[in-house]
Design brief:
The protein is α+β, with helices and mostly antiparallel strands and 142 residues long. It contains four helices and six strands, in the order E-E-H-H-E-E-E-H-E-H. It has a three-stranded mixed sheet. Helix 1 packs across helix 2.
């Protein structure tokens, strides 16, 4: 399988000079709602393990609640082979250290850093240009 991409023109504002350059951007060929969901993932994991799809699905459904509770305690969660989840926080700007109180702090995002093995596995993939594929299809039709 390969990752589909298209090419888009973007303004590069590097080093103060504005320059229009072309960049590859991911282009999913799936319609909304056709990504992999927990049910499909549970079936696939059951196929390669001794667990039933129901067992796997149960764990997947419980996982987000447990991850959330640990993140709310300020802990990181590392899942070997997958990566590490952690929170990013921010606050309002304050004039003094004393003014930066807990009521001004909030979670800005939940972060994920993939394990090196996962990153390497995904980075070594093939890419297919959507534009070139469409051109090839049109040439074959003629």
């Amino acid at each position: 399988m390969a990752i589909n991409y298209s090419v888009k023109k973007k303004v590069n504002k590097n080093k103060g000079a504005e320059e229009e350059l072309y960049y590859a951007v991911p282009k999913a060929l799936q319609k909304a709602g056709q990504g992999v969901n927990e049910v499909q993932l549970a079936r696939e994991l059951a196929d390669i393990s001794s667990l039933t799809a129901g067992d796997v699905l149960s764990v997947l459904e419980l996982l987000s609640g447990k991850v959330a509770s640990h993140l709310k305690e300020g802990r990181t969660i590392h899942i070997r082979g997958l990566g590490t989840f952690f929170t990013g926080i921010t606050s309002e700007g304050c004039a003094t250290r004393e003014e930066c109180t807990a009521d001004k702090v909030r979670v800005s995002r939940i972060c994920f850093k993939a394990d090196k093995e996962l990153s390497n596995e995904v980075k070594h993939t093939k890419f297919i240009s959507i534009e070139l594929n469409e051109e090839k299809k049109q040439v074959k039709k003629k």
